[in-house]
């Protein structure tokens, strides 16, 4: 996967959503992904939004990433942003047990209630692995949860950027493999999607994607 500089043209537009308890690092993860920087951010008020253009498997993608507030007082507002998302990233903090238990108590239920897309790809992300000595939630617990709820799974650190790109990369790759989501992602991009693309000369040697 690589960042694309051609901002005007893209083959698919994907809507991604970040959800999870307040303070787990959703906004930091997004900032780390889009700007390669780490800042001590304030809690999100309502909903935030960033766009990133990437190229994956020769396809130019426009990722519209919605970053929701984890605080309960914003729940009514944020619920309306699940509509039409092709990918949802559920984030918890590996150093705070309640952010993990709230995945099943709150966040998975929110997805069931508000996601309009049956084939929507879910990714579970355990953040803050740089604080290994304070870890409370084991990697195995994350894997087991992801298996039970049919999610992809990764642990990452928005601070050190460990696995940050992979979180988005694996999600996007899975969306690209899902025909119904692809069909949706190409709606509104009519002028680009029907163009035949020449085969990529290095496709057999390169990995599927790089940033
Ligand atoms: N050590 C460490 N701190 C992190 C990491 N990611 C985020 N933080 C810190 O955790 C705090 C909360 O991060 P945010 O990104 O604001 O959390 P959020 O999930 O967006 O919170 P809401 O917007 O309230 O829902 C901030 O002080 C961040 O600096 C990480 O990977 N490692
Ligand atoms: Mg935030």
Automatic annotation (TrEMBL):
Q: Which SUPFAM superfamilies match?
A: P-loop containing nucleoside triphosphate hydrolases
Entry keyword set? Cell membrane, GTP-binding, Lipoprotein, Membrane, Nucleotide-binding, Prenylation, Protein transport, Transport
User: Quick one: a GO biological-process term for this protein?
Assistant: protein transport
Q: What does this protein do?
A: Intracellular vesicle trafficking and protein transport.
Family the entry assigns? Belongs to the small GTPase superfamily. Rab family.
Q: Which PANTHER family match?
A: RAS-RELATED PROTEIN RAB
**Listed name of the protein:** Ras-related protein RABC1
Q: Record the organism.
A: Ficus carica
Classification from the root reads: Eukaryota, Viridiplantae, Streptophyta, Embryophyta, Tracheophyta
